[in-house]
Amino acid sequence: MNDTFDTRQAWGNGSDAPELSSIDVGFMPLTDSASLIVAATQGFAQPYGLNINLRRQSSWANLRDNLICGELHAAHSLYGLIYAAQLGIGCPAKDMAVLMGLNQNGQSIDLSADLQRAGVITPEALDRRTHQSGTKLTFAQTLPTGNHAMWLYYWLASQGIHPLQDVDSVVVPPPQMVEHLKAGRIDGFCVGEPWGASAVNQSLGFTLATSQTIWPDHPEKVLGCTREFVQRYPNTARALIMAVLDASRFIEDSTDNRRSTAQLLSGSDYVNAQVDDIEARLLGRYSDGLGNHWQDCHAVSFHRQGEVNMPWLSDGMWFMTQFRRWGLLREDPDYLAVASQVQQLDLYRQAAEALNVPVSESVMRSSQLIDGKVWDGSDPVAYAHGFKLHALADDTSVTTDR
Amino acid sequence: MLRILLINDTPKKVGRLKTALTEAGFEVIDESGLVIDLPQRVHAVRPDVILIDTESPGRDVMEQVVLVTRDLPRPIVMFTDEHDPNVMRQAIKSGVSAYIVEGIHAQRLQPILDVAMARFESDQDLRAQLHARDQQLAERKRIETAKGLLMKMKSCSEEEAYTLMRRQAMSRQQKLVQVAEQIIAMSELLG
User: I need a labelling partner for B183 at 20 to 30 A (CA). Which of A185, A270, A327, B191 fits?
Assistant: First the structure.
C-alpha cells in the first residue's frame, strides 16, 4: 500500500526533466565529433533543459581517464575505448555505458609520401615491403585498444601482414598524426578525418584504404559515459541522447547543412583544421593523393534514419572479438552479457521513439567484412577464434571446449 | 593544511578561538576584529575558510557575510553565544555554512570544519546548477524571440527559421544564441 503510494508520488513529482542542467562533455578534434558539437552550440539541448559544455581533450587516453574519474559526464568516444575500460584493459576496470552511436565510417589508413615515391602504393606492394628484411615499417594508431588499432590490424591481416609481427605500432593523438608523418617519425597511420585528408592535401601522404572498405558502415564513435552516470542521472542521459540524435538528423537534412557543419567544425574551438580538409570527405568526395577521385557511398554518416545511432549489441561485441583475437584478452568474455550491460538500448529506444526516429526490432546486424567473413553477433567465440592471423596465444580451455 | 582567516568580533583582545585553533594544529593566517572591508581582506589573504567569533551577530556582521558570499564565496563558520533561532536562520540565509552555539573544544574543531567545507561545496554546486538553468532559460527566450522575428521577416515556418539561423551560426562558427542576438539587434535598429 505504502509502496504503491510512494511510487506514484515519485512518478508524479519527478518529471523526466534532467537531474543536471549543465554537463561537461569531452571530445577529440575529429570530423566525427560533429553531432555533439552541433548539438552543444546550435540550441539542440536547451529544449530538453540541458546545457552541454564542450571540453576538448588532448588524447584518447586523457579523455578516457577524465571520463572514468568523473571529470567529464560523457564523451565522444571510441567503441574500443569504452569496451577496454569495461574490461580493464590498459586502465582499471570500470562499468561503462554506450548511450548511442555517433557515426559510421570516415576513418582511413594513409601512408607517407616516401613510401609513395618508393612505389608502395598498393596492398601487394606493402605486403612485399613488410616481408623484406631490413627495418620494420612503423604505423601509428590512436589508442592500443582503440578502433584505429583494430581497423589497422584488421586491414593488414586481411592483406596477409601480421600487425603485431611484421610492423611496429605506436600511439599518436589524432591532431598530431600529420606532423609525425611529415617529420618522418612514422611511415603511415590509421586515424579519423580530417587528418587523412589533411595529409593528402598537403602532399605529405596518400590514402591507401578507407575504413569503410574494411567494413562498409562500420561502427565508429559512440556517446560514452560510466554506468554510474546513467544510474544516477537517467533523465540527463536521455536528454543528452535526444539532443544529439536531433542534431545528427539535422546535419543530414541537406547538403547545405553538411556544408555549414564543416565550417563550424573547422573553428579553432572545435577541430581547428582547414575547412577544405573537413568538407570534401564529409560530403563523400574523396581524393586519395594518387590521382583517384570518387564519390564514396559509405562516407561518414551521422544518422541514416537512426541506423547509425542504434547501439547494436553486435557492434559492441565485435570490438571484444578483436581484443580476443589480438591477445588483449586472454580469455573469451561473455560477449553477449557484457554488451547487453554496456549498450543502453532501453534509454536509446525511449529517446528515439520520443523523436519519431525508427528503432530496429533486432539488436544485432549482419555485415560482410573485407576478408569475406560475415559478422552477425551469433557466435562470437567461433568468430574470434576463426582468423588465420591472430595472437590468441595458448587458450587451451577454449580449444578443448570446441 | 587549512588556512584560516579569523574574525574576532568579541570585546576581548585575544579571542577564545585562536588558542583552541592553534592547539588543534590549524594555521591561522590572519586575525582581526570585525572590519568593514571583509571581501578585500578575503581577496588579499585567500583563506580556505573564514571563522567568525561573535557574541551576537549583528547587522554589520551579516552584511559582511553577504558580501563575501556574493563576491568571493568561501566556507564561513560562525561561533556565537546567540541562541535565538531567528538570528541563526538569518545567518544561514546570509551564507554561513555552519552556525555553532557556545562551547569551543579543540577536538571538535576538525569535524565542524569538515562539515562546513562539505556543506559549502554542495551549496556551490547547487548555485552553479541554478545559475546554468537561469542562463539556459534566458538563452531560450532570446532564440525564440529571434525565431519569431525571422518568421515574420521571411514569412517562413518555424522549422525553416531555425534552420536559417543555425546555418548562419555554423558558417560563422558561432553559437545559435549569438545569431539570435544579432537578429534582435538588427530588428531593433530597423524598427
Answer: A270
Q: Is the ipTM of this complex over 0.95?
A: no
With cell 571446449, the residue in question is A401
Task: Provide the pairing of β-strand A107-112 with A188-192.
Answer: antiparallel
Domain A2-103+220-381 - what CATH class? Answer: alpha beta
Helix (H) or strand (E) holding A208: strand A205-210
Q: Say yes or no: A41 contacts chain B, CB-CB below 8 A.
A: yes
Dump pLDDT digits (tens) for A58-110.
999 999 999 999 999 999 999 999 999 999 999 999 999 999 999 999 999 99
Q: Quickly count: other Cβ atoms within 10 Å of residue A330's Cβ.
A: 11
Is it the case that residue A6 has pLDDT exceeding 50? Answer: no
Q: Measuring CA to CA, which residue among A171, A225, A268, A229 is closest to residue A26?
A: A225
Q: By CA distance, what is A253's nearest residue in B?
A: B163
| Omega before A194 within 30 of 0, i.e. cis | yes
The pLDDT tens digits for B139-173 are: 999 999 999 999 999 999 999 999 999 999 999 99
pLDDT of residue A5: 37
Superfamily (CATH H level) for A107-214 = Periplasmic binding protein-like II (3.40.190.10)
A261 touches chain B (CB under 8 A): yes
Pick from B129, B143, B171: which is nearest to A20 by CB?
Answer: B129
| DSSP summary character for residue A29 | S
- Report d(CA A138, CA A148) in Å as an integer: 14
Q: Do B170 and A42 touch (CB under 8 A)?
A: yes
Q: Parallel, antiparallel, or unpaired: how do β-strands A107-112 and A74-78 relate?
A: unpaired
Which range is least confidently modeled, A272-286, B96-110, B129-143? B96-110
Partners of residue A97 on adjacent β-strands: A225
* pLDDT at residue B15 tops 80: no
Fold for the domain defined by B135-190: Arc Repressor Mutant, subunit A (1.10.10)
- One-letter amino acid at A344 equals Q
